[in-house]
Specification:
8 helices; 23% helix; 4-stranded antiparallel β-sheet; 7-stranded mixed β-sheet; globular; pyruvate; alpha+beta; 24% strand; dihydrolipoyllysine-residue acetyltransferase activity; 2-oxoacid_DH_actylTfrase; Single_hybrid_motif; Dihydrolipoamide acetyltransferase component of pyruvate dehydrogenase complex
């Protein structure tokens, strides 16, 4: 019996550090190859790390909420048989529990070996239920949250929300399956027991994960790319009517349709006419790189902060397929399930601050992109039509662009084309 230390891996995105969000195991728990050990939060997403060993958990070497450097050991696992040089455990080793055969919920044929500790294939992601197997490990002094109380069942985004609200999850009663804590449970708990804020004290919040990465990226972008922002007020009545027609179409049944879909179509059509706006500035080689595909990023507010997942090769999608892709991106982002691959490789971004009732803004470019379109609030306003003042749906658009590769003429043409498309989507689609 040897003890193997599992070190925090680079999960394939240039990772330098990550925060331990949720341990799925505790000392004394049996684990099998590819069982999920821990959820970590990188600068881009919450990622599950599977076990590269089969055995019994010896020690947790990092605590929840701790930021760990890549290559640092995070867990020690007792492994049967001879193996490489191992770190001896502080306590006597216990034999792993028997009866570790595959269950009905997890056939052995579906398990796939993982060498780097990053993940398993989609066919092998089914997790076995946690079995309450008693440990024969001798009692040891309390060293962490797992030694004296059972694990709290909830999703990683809700753990983040609870931390922000100052709520101890162990005090919340879960109403979900198996005592799972839902968002409503957390909100009900905070409503009943609202802590009284002490306004005489300053509060210090650690900057980690997405917020830390976002801050660094925005500072780098603001002081690297010369930003220019242009504004345009648009009559959106045609878009509102078009969205209403799509919602009644049987082909779109069960698919959420919004003006954001039409704005996405407008941006894609503008790029088709003006491909230079879908590019980046290569400072090292002093070149402009024009992207072959449009990886359309959609900014989404989540409990972890602002995320910008993107739809890969969006220019190839039909209208309904694009609507489905946008809905899936937004849903997975809010649930904290966005894959790192969906957060990288974006070529242009749309951000919608209108959902917060804000009319306009000057968005900062995402690093490596030449432009970003901002949608303001959709408002009913007086508008002149055929020399008559009538009520119309209007919105303010703002387009920020990198003036090194997008000059004022190109930026103006792109923004004007997007506005024309939103005024008459049928005209825009007819010319695609």
């Amino acid at each position: 019996m040897t003890v193997q230390q599992f070190r925090l891996p680079d999960v394939g995105e240039g990772l330098t550090e990550a925060e331990i969000v949720t341990w799925r195991v505790a000392p004394g728990d049996p684990v099998r190859l590819n069982d999920i050990l821990v959820d970590i939060e990188t600068a881009k997403a919450v990622v599950e790390l599977p076990s590269p060993y089969a055995g019994v958990v010896d020690r947790l070497l990092a605590e929840e909420g701790q930021t760990v450097d890549v290559g640092s050991p995070i867990i020690a696992i007792r492994v049967a048989g001879d193996g490489p040089a191992a770190t001896p455990a502080d306590e006597p080793a216990a034999e792993p529990p028997t009866g570790d055969e595959p269950t009905a919920d997890e056939p052995a044929a579906e398990r796939t070996a993982v060498l780097v500790g990053y993940g398993v294939s989609a066919q092998a992601r089914t997790r076995r239920p946690r079995r309450a197997t008693p440990s024969v490990r001798p009692a040891e002094p309390a060293r962490g949250p797992h030694t004296s109380r059972p694990p709290v069942l909830t999703k990683p985004p809700l753990r983040k929300l609870a931390k922000d609200l100052g709520v101890e999850l162990a005090d919340v009663r879960g109403s979900g399956p198996g005592g799972l804590i839902t968002r409503q449970d957390l909100l009900d708990h905070t409503t009943v027991r609202t802590p009284v804020a002490d306004h005489r004290r300053d509060e210090r919040l650690p900057v980690r994960g997405v917020r830390k990465a976002t801050a660094a990226a925005m500072v780098a972008s603001a002081f690297t790319a010369p930003h220019v922002t242009e504004f345009l007020t648009v009559d959106m009545t045609g878009t509102v009517e078009f969205v209403a027609r799509l919602k009644q179409d049987p082909a779109f049944q069960g698919v959420k349709v919004s003006p954001l879909l039409v704005a996405s179509l407008a941006v894609l059509d503008a790029i088709r006419r003006y491909p230079d706006v879908n590019a980046r500035w290569d400072e090292e080689n002093q070149e402009i790189v024009r992207f072959a595909d449009v990886n359309l990023g959609i900014a989404a507010a989540t409990p972890r902060g602002l995320l910008v997942p993107n739809v890969k090769a969006a220019q190839n999608l039909a209208v309904r397929d694009l609507a489905v892709a946008l809905n899936e991106l937004a849903g997975t982002a809010r649930e904290g399930r966005t894959r790192p691959a969906d957060l990288s490789g974006g070529t242009i971004t749309i951000t919608n601050i209108g959902v917060f009732g804000v009319d306009a803004g000057t968005p900062i470019l995402n690093p490596g992109e030449a432009s970003i379109l901002c949608l303001g609030a959709l408002r009913r306003m007086p508008w002149v039509v055929d020399e008559q003042v009538v009520p119309r749906w209007t919105v303010q658009l703002s387009l920020s662009f990198d003036h090194r590769l997008v000059d004022g003429e190109l930026g103006s043409r792109v923004l004007a084309h997007v506005g024309r498309f939103l005024e008459d989507p049928l005209w825009g689609l007819a010319l695609r």
